[in-house]
Structure prediction request, 277 residues.
Amino acid sequence: MSEVHSEGALVAGAVRFLQQRLPLARLAKVKLGIVLGSGLKDFAAQLQDPVAVACKDVPNWIAPRIEGHGGSLVLGDIGNVTVLCLTGRIHGYEGYAPNEVVRNVRTCRLLGVQTFLLTNAAGGIGDELSAGDLMAITDHLNLTGASPLIGPHDPDFGPRFPDQTNTWDKELRQLLLLCGSGIMQGVYAGLLGPSYETPAEVGMLKKLGAHAVGMSTVHEAIALHAMGARLCGLSLISNLAAGIADTPLCHDEVIDAGKQAAAQLTAIVTAFCARLA
Ligand code: HPA
Prediction:
């Protein structure tokens, strides 16, 4: 019979491996963990002196497979700030459990990273949002019906019943808003996907207080906040959500929007790192 490992043991295995593969003195200097969303992987090319590890080589990690996502963990510098960047992520709609979705970010947290920037592509719902806008996440709605904290309690992953009042750190958000002009703010609704929403669902999300909708980020936010990390988030509004615009949605449009926004995102994150320093 194969041995069953707890989630804690799986994450610990990944931590041990990366502690051997990454230069520890540099790892200890990391000021920011970054997760890149759909179409945003090219940002990692901006990192200076990169040390990259393929996610598929990290024990117990699942490699990102969705088009528009990269598949590595990169330790590198932006200006004089060291960052640890995941160039892609895992999604629940791929069939993975929430624990599996967050295994890579939990590993980064246990490697010592305190502060994270979670990025994603999202559909715009809020009246003031247009395609191409960037939105700093003020809060989220977890509408996936699941949580990475379901299951046996592991104190390494935070309290049994974590508070979520300040999941998205206000100070970090204020800093982020200073780093680009016209950055909007709003609530991100995370759904399981993979189908885009129906117009009726988008109408419901709007009534619930969502400004943007996507298929990621909320499980990472829940897991990292429970582990005491400070979080900020940036959604690229790649399209207007279904029924807000009357054109049908497609993933290519999401990836193209990411490519178009890459330079802007790079400038914002670079400025953000300078302010964090
Ligand atoms: N809905 C859900 N996820 C998304 C969207 C959307 O409109 N755009 C990019 N990711």
Notes: The chain has one domain: 3-276. The first strand starts at residue 30 and ends at 35.
